[in-house]
Structures are given as structure tokens and as C-alpha cells.
Known about the structure:
Mean pLDDT: 86
Number of domains: 2
CATH architecture of the largest domain: 2-Layer Sandwich
Helix content: 40-55%
Number of helices: 7
CATH class of the largest domain: Alpha Beta
Amino acid sequence: xxxxxxxxxxxxxxxxxxxxxxxxxxxxxxxxxxxxxxxxxxxxxxxxxxxxxxxxxxxxxxxxxxxxxxxxxxxxxxxxxxxxxxxxxxxxxxxxxxxxxxxxxxxxxxxxxxxxxxxxxxxxxxxxxxxxxxxxxxxxxxxxxxxxxxxxxxxxxxxxxxxxxxxxxxxxxxxxxxxxxxxxxxxxxxxxxxxxxxxxxxxxxxx
Length: 207
């Protein structure tokens, strides 16, 4: 199935934005302002939704005419585009969105046509699936690994690189001794927080 690559799921949702000429501030403008000010990276609310490797929210005004031989087409409304690369199943992911970040979800999708809210998780999931389109060109940058496994692997890569740099030219006995100490230390390291933009810089900041 195009949406699925192993345990990774490529979610693409297009929700039509409300067009209300009587509104003082248009819904698409209000939505843009909200998304612009929404915390990112380690502070993003979507770090609370387990399984999120990354996600993106974009307001799309229209499609671009790229020229002949393509036909010129236009959208009937503006759309909120939500794209997420997630680990696991769609149903569990939508349920977590409704349970863990209900205020954020309501703040965003309340600007969209037909949005039922998250008070009824089943209605919310049905709405999101109705707005879902097939992810036909899905490249999973992480295959079959959870967010926690990926963060741990990246952490180990950063730590091992630093170990190599520190021990250039060490004697075999010294290298063996340092590696044993290194291994004991990295086994006790806490998991890096989800949403860290640059794990290497984060490591350097706390080293």
C-alpha cells in the first residue's frame, strides 16, 4: 500500500479551509498566524504524539500552473495540508492526537470545513480519514524503527564520533580502557528529547 513502508506510515491530509466573507479575519490568515507562532522542534506539541518522526502543516492557496502540456487547474478552496511520517498505525496515531494535544488540534482544524472537534474521537478520526489522500510518492527516511530507537541510534552516532576524536593515537591498552569506560557511560545516558533539531549541537551544548 502506498501509504505504508514497513512500519512507517506516510500520512497526507488536505482539509478545506472555511471561506467566510463576514469574518473580520479570514480563516486562512488566522491559521497562518497560529502556525507561524506554534512552537517547533523540541517544543512542538506534536512531540507528545508518540510515533511522530516529523510532521508539517502548510496553508495551500492554489496549485501552480507549470505550463504546457499540463492543463491549468485551480482549487475550489484554500486547504490546510498536514503531512506526517509516523511509526505504526493510523488509527492509534489519530487517537493520540485527540487525547494528547486536543487543544492544539482544535485550534488548528477549527478553521476547516466540517471539522467535528476531538470530543468525539471516532468522529474526529472519520473526518481526518475523509480528508486523507493517498501518499503516492512516499520515501521513508527511517525504516521500521520507532522514534525512541532512532533517537538512541543518533545519540550513539554522536557519542561514538566524539569518542574517536578524543582517542586518536591512543595505545591499544589505553583505547581498550577508554572504550570500556565509554560503553558504561553511554548505556546510562538518558534518551534525547523528541524534536531535537540537531542532536550533535545538542550534545555539544551539554558536553
